[in-house]
Design goal:
about 30% helix; alpha/beta; Rossmann fold; single chain; about 25% strand; two-stranded antiparallel ribbon
Length: about 180
């Protein structure tokens, strides 16, 4: 990391055993696969880490969280929540079936004096019953979610590029 460069953390959270509840972790996997992101950005699978993630987020200037968010929108809708006040006490509900929710983690980080710039890129879940697969609507929304995270990283001054990936259906490249 260069001097003066922001320390950025992208954190994918959720329980992958509960279908769409694990979409933050699955979106992080998608982001890693489809985008070239510099090593200066920390990409962390936070799973259901709860308050154990406090040590992970400490020391970062910017925090981008990928998670299921109950916004009252149609399943698969991607939303951006920015700013500590909106994230910590907004009119949305981070779909937290984890031990402790993101709101509690961020409140604890503020008490510890850790106040990174916070953005949540979230998606409305459809199915949070037991299961390892995402619902079709949520699965179709992963490219949009990952693209929004890439845009957020660019806004923070990070050089992010979409990888050219061979299309499995017809052998053509997309990118």
């Amino acid at each position: 990391m260069r001097r003066g460069e922001k320390k950025v953390l992208v954190l994918g959270v959720g329980n992958v055993l509960l279908s769409d509840e694990g979409l933050g972790v699955k979106a992080l996997e998608f982001l890693k696969r489809d985008y070239a992101i510099p090593r200066s950005v920390s990409l962390v699978d936070g799973g259901t880490g709860g308050l154990a993630l406090l040590s992970v987020i400490t020391g970062h200037d910017s925090l981008v969280i990928m998670d299921a968010v109950r916004s009252g929108s149609a399943p698969g809708t991607v939303v951006r929540l920015a700013g500590a006040d909106q994230v910590r006490s907004g009119g949305y509900r981070v779909s937290s079936l984890h031990e402790l929710g993101i709101e509690e983690l961020l409140q604890a980080s503020a008490l510890e004096g850790c106040n990174p710039e916070i953005v949540i890129i979230g998606m409305e879940p459809e199915d949070t019953s037991a299961g390892l697969e995402l619902s079709p609507r949520v699965r179709r929304g992963l490219p949009l979610m990952a693209g929004m995270v890439a845009e957020e990283l660019r806004r923070l001054g990070v050089k992010v590029k979409r990888r050219c990936i061979e299309d499995e259906d017809n052998g053509q490249e997309k990118g």
